[in-house]
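TL;DR need structure tokens for one chain.
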Amino acid sequence: MLRKLLLPAVLAATTLAVPVHALDLSEMTAAEREAFGEQVRAYLMENPEVIMEAVRALEARQAEAQAEADVALVADNADALFDDGFSFVGGNPDGDITLVEFMDYRCGFCKRAFGEVEKLLASDGNIRFVVKEFPILGEQSVLASRYAIATHMISGDEAYKSLHDALMSFNGDITLATLRRISETYGIDSAAVEAKMDDEEVTERIRATRALAQQLQITGTPTFVLQDELLRGYLPYDQLQDIVEDKRS
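>> reply
TL;DR here they are.
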């Protein structure tokens, strides 16, 4: 990343060392370009801190541009994000803040984030939480998501939440035998779920979520949407709480 930023940062830094008109390289002779290069090098050798200052300024500018683009993406896809008609809605369904998570049951950072999100929902009490089943880490991920979605369709929110929580806390291989054992613990009819999990409607729900993720330029898990803001990657409880408070203020 630093190497990608270095050239534009150096060019930005050189504006401090030479007159603006001298930066039009196409107007320079070969001798002038050589002199210009020597001047830039000398300035940067004397003031190396300028490079990092320019890199930080460029990174900040790029982050701001990305944040603005993300806000537009969220606004353009708001219905599919917040009210698609099939994703699980937990926390406080009538909460004043909505948190959406794109997750995968095989994702280590999703498992890490699980406790942080649960803590946030419990401590706040006024957050609406939407789960987007986004299996991207192989066949076990797809198996788990199909089973979870089918459970939601067959047995409703409470059964889904129990299964979801158990899978987020589970660290072994996910097989049908694993899913059956978890189902028995919570009184879920595994035979009915298995009969449903290859249904076209289950496939369509996963397809719709993947299409939404593509629209939002989401390529990894966990990815959160908090009100109008896209948050890519794992976030600890304190940071999530600060963002929630900022949205309310």
